[in-house]
Amino acid sequence: MVFISATVLGYFAITFGYSAFCAVNALKKANISAPLASIISLAILRFLYLTDMVSGLQLQYQYLQQISAYSHFVSSTYSKRNKMLSLIKKLTHSTTVAGSQFALLLLANIIPKDKSLWVYGCLRGYSEGCAAIIEIAHKDGTHRNVWLYRSESERVALQQRGMSHYPLHSLRGYWYCLRANLAFIAYGFNDLNGTAIHGAKIINVWHGTPLKKIYFDSPQLLGSSIRKRVKRHLQSCFTRRIYIFPVSSEISRTRIESAFRLKPKVAVVVGEPRTDKVLLKANANHTEDLLINELLKLGPDRVLLYAPTWRAGSIQSDMQGFHDLVSLLEKHDKYVAFRAHPLDGNNPILKFNHRRVLLFPQNTYQDVNDYLWLFGALITDYSSIAIDFSLRSRSIYFFAPDIDSYHETQGLYESYDVFTDSSWHKDWHGLIQSIEKNWSNGVTQNNCSKKLLKRYHEFQDGQSALRTYELCKKLSNK
């Protein structure tokens, strides 16, 4: 029964994809008017949505869950059948996703676009450059701005700001993606409904200037295997739809053009919209958040932010070295806020209970640029947070005990010595000595921070989002 059901579902997905293809050709040959094409396309989309085929990779299928449960039930007795069921489950899922995505791709390229409609979304909620731009666009009121949200907290934030918003994976969410003229993303095409925005002009505001090689430059995507070739080709189908990619400097432009294989003049040096808030002088006096209240009370000069990059097979922290850092904090009456990556849940620092150590988790405080003004210095390794923090004109300390292996597996766009001005440390002892020297001498901004600021930020006026918005308005009218 399972085999028959899986076969029927797979056949249905392929058949529907082919039928949609034939329907598109028929619509084109018949010269159907734009409004009627929209109505027909919406009917197809609604059918997809109601049959749960439009969910793609984002949602779980109840049917597949039933197969999985049955597979688990027979695993102890029928191992061969279990393997077969597992294979059927994977094939069914892949076929269903392929069929639904193919249908969405067709719809995305035939549905007439609404020139006044801009859609926004972000994997980390209402944050990053997407939030910076929609706030300007909302005040201007020239276009219809719609944010597609994932969580209740995101919905509340949008409602408080009076912005138009709908659930990302709702029928309206897909419809607005298909109709949008401009689509704003910060982490990837799944910030919105992936394939559904293929027909839109994509504005990629990205989430940081990379030191680590990313996207097409990443070692994980390089190679001649069929799988990697197919993956590169599929990704290039979307990166070709990027029309504007704001960056902070010529160095950034070169890297981004290479990483995303962009057309000339797509990456533009106007500053990164997400960093405007780093330059703003915060005047918050009260908040319901206990940690933020504590940081406000302490003041930035007394708090050091430690934000290491996550990597697969993350290195274990040298706790003796961290103990020595805490001793230094006690000596100078300062504190450290530790920001671990959500996937680094086993880091022993998270279990280190000391009044000088404050936990600053990414899951709770997602957009770090909202909070950089609370810190007077930064410890990091390969993270783009260093480039953002340089706008604070405060000291940055680089701690990279695994530089050799990281460089080999991840790849860097420039040597670590160039990036850090040769001011980095491979062990806690050297790091602590450097911090203590600056604190004892009253140094608030070290040389490597000054050079990062000069090299990576051509604009330091807090108007990057506005410049990007003006470019988007011109593009929208074309």
TrEMBL record:
One of its GO terms (molecular function) is CDP-glycerol glycerophosphotransferase activity. InterPro entries: Glycerophosphate_synth, TagF_C, TagF_N, Teichoic_Acid_Biosynth. One of its GO terms (biological process) is teichoic acid biosynthetic process. It is found in: Cell membrane. One of its GO terms (cellular component) is plasma membrane. It is a peripheral membrane protein. Keywords: Cell membrane, Membrane, Teichoic acid biosynthesis, Transferase, Transmembrane, Transmembrane helix. The chain crosses the membrane at residues 32-49. Belongs to the CDP-glycerol glycerophosphotransferase family. PANTHER family: TEICHOIC ACID GLYCEROL-PHOSPHATE PRIMASE, TEICHOIC ACID GLYCEROL-PHOSPHATE TRANSFERASE. This is Uncharacterized protein. It comes from Pseudomonas denitrificans.
